[in-house]
Amino acid sequence: MSLAKRVLKMLTYKEKTAAIREVENRLKTKSLIAKEFGIPLNTLSTCLKNKETILKRSREPENPEVDECIYKWF
């Protein structure tokens, strides 16, 4: 009996946002979306459960010019 190691797949916020958007569009099933991103269905369900937090982090800045100036300042 061999024990195979599972590969840990970490999704970026952009990937999580894309997965959430695909589920919201209802063009594909959740299991198909999970396979497409290479993650288990439980991970996709966790992303959907935390969708408000994920989408809040991936939003665009309210004032991109100020954001750009701060970036240059650093």
Automatic annotation (TrEMBL):
Pfam families for the chain: CENP-B_N
GO molecular function terms attached to this record: DNA binding
Main location: nucleus
Gene3D superfamilies, per database record: Homeodomain-like
Protein name (record): DNA binding HTH domain, Psq-type,Homeobox domain-like
Upper classification of the organism: Eukaryota, Metazoa, Ecdysozoa, Arthropoda, Hexapoda
Keyword tags: DNA-binding, Homeobox
Domain HTH psq-type: 5-57
GO cellular component: nucleus
Keyword rRNA-binding found: no
Protein location: Nucleus
